[in-house]
Predict the 3D structure of the following.
Amino acid sequence: MAYWLVILGKLQLAALILLVSSFLQQHFANGQPLQVPCFFIFGDSLSDNGNNNNLKTTANSNYQPYGIDFPKGRPTGRFTNAEELGFPEDSIPPYAKLATVGPVEKALKGVNYASGAAGILNESGRTRGDRIPMNEQLTNHQKTVSRIINKLGKKNATQLLNKCIYSVAIGTNDYINNYFLPQFYPASRIYTPSQYAEILLRKLSQQLRTLHRRKARKVVVYGLGLLGCIPYEVKMYGANISGCVDKINEAVMLFNNGLKSLVSDLNNNHTINATFIFINSTGISLTSSPGSITVSNAACCQVSEASAPQCIRSGKTCSNRTQYAFWDEAHPTEAAYSATAARAYRALLPTDSYPFDIQRLAQL
Ligand SMILES: *[C@@H]1O[C@H](CO)[C@@H](O)[C@H](O)[C@H]1NC(C)=O
Ligand SMILES: *[C@@H]1O[C@H](CO)[C@@H](O)[C@H](O)[C@H]1NC(C)=O
Ligand SMILES: *[C@@H]1O[C@H](CO)[C@@H](O)[C@H](O)[C@H]1NC(C)=O
Ligand SMILES: *[C@@H]1O[C@H](CO)[C@@H](O)[C@H](O)[C@H]1NC(C)=O
Ligand SMILES: *[C@@H]1O[C@H](CO)[C@@H](O)[C@H](O)[C@H]1NC(C)=O
Ligand SMILES: *[C@@H]1O[C@H](CO)[C@@H](O)[C@H](O)[C@H]1NC(C)=O
Ligand SMILES: *[C@@H]1O[C@H](CO)[C@@H](O)[C@H](O)[C@H]1NC(C)=O
C-alpha cells in the first residue's frame, strides 16, 4: 500500500460532521425542503465548536493561529482550519453559548455539545484539564430537551426530536488521552486492548440508549481513524514500517469492528425504535485520493514540547496548508478531511457506511 494511503488514515471526523451539516444546510439554502430540521452533535475536539473556550484546559483552540482560515481570520474554537466547509459560523450553536444567553428557539435547529479532550469514559482527557465527557454532554442534552418540551409541548417536541439527526463521534481520547498514555492512566496495565474496547463499547452502548430515550431516532456513529498515524503518537512511540504506531491502530480496529456490531445489535433490537448508522472513517480515508497532500508526518504550525500536540500561541504556520494532512500534531487540516468527508454523507464504496449512508438516514 502506498505510504500516503496509510497516512491518510489519520483523517478525522469533525470534519465529516461539519461537512454533513453543510450539506444539510445547502439543501436549505437552495430553497429545497430541509432534509432534517435539526442536527445535534456529540463528541470531542474533532467536533467542538467552542464549548471548551471558557474551561480551564489546554484542550482549547481559541487563540491564533487556530481559525487562520476563517473569514474574519480569528479563532472560533474549532480545532482545525476548517473554514471552507461552508456553513455559517453560528448555525449550530455550541451548548456553552446557548445555555447562558441563548433563547430556546436557537436550539430547535440543533446544538453542539462536543468538547475537546472528552471521551466515552469520564476520566479520559483528565490530564488536559476541564472537559465535558460524553455522560455530561448527554446531561446537557437532557436540559435542552426539557426546554424544547416546555416550549413546544410534549407531543410536538417529540415529533421534532424524532426527525433530527444525532451525530456521535467519540472515543479518540479514550485511546490517545487514556489507554496510550500509561504514565498517567493505569488502563493499559489492567486491560488487554480487547478488554478495553469491550469496556468502551459497553459504556457507549448505554450512552446511545440514553440518546434513544431522549427521543433520538436517527443516529450517526463514527468509527475512529488510524490514531497510530497521528504525528504526536509517532513521536512518542516511534514508527513501525507502516509509518505509524501499529499497536495503536490494531487496538483501535478492535473498537471499530465492535462498534459496527453494536450498531447492528441496536438496529435489530425491537425494544429500540431507532436507526443507527456506522461510518467507516478508517476505510474511507484508506481508499481516498490524497489530492495535493504531500506532507503527512508533520504539523503545519509550530508546536513546542509544552504545547504539544497543539500549536504554540501566535506561532508560525506553513505557507501551503493544502499540502499538509495535519494542522497541529493531532488534528487534520481541511485539505485532509474534505477529500473524504463527502462519503460519510453519500457513500462511494459499500464499506463506507453501515447499513447505509447519512443521505439515506435523512430520508427515512
Ligand atoms: C461519570 O460522570 C457522571 C456524571 O456526568 C456520573 O453520573 C457517573 O457516575 C460517572 N461515572 C463513573 C464511572 O465515575
Ligand atoms: C403543535 O403543532 C400543531 C400542528 O403543527 C400546532 O397547531 C400547535 O399549535 C402546536 N402546539 C404547540 C404547543 O406549539
Ligand atoms: C513496531 O515497532 C515496535 C517498536 O520498534 C516493535 O516492538 C514492534 O514489534 C513493531 N510491531 C510490528 C507489528 O512490527
Ligand atoms: C434490547 O435492548 C434492551 C433494552 O436496552 C435490552 O435489555 C435487551 O437485552 C436487548 N435485547 C437484545 C436481544 O439485545
Ligand atoms: C417508531 O418510530 C417511528 C418514527 O419515529 C414512529 O412512527 C413509530 O410509531 C414508532 N413505533 C413505536 C413502536 O414506538
Ligand atoms: C472499513 O472499510 C474497509 C475497506 O475500505 C474494510 O476492509 C473494513 O472491514 C471496514 N471496517 C468495518 C468495521 O466495517
Ligand atoms: C501549493 O500547493 C498547490 C497544490 O499542490 C500547488 O499547486 C502550489 O504551487 C503550491 N504553492 C506553493 C507556494 O507552494
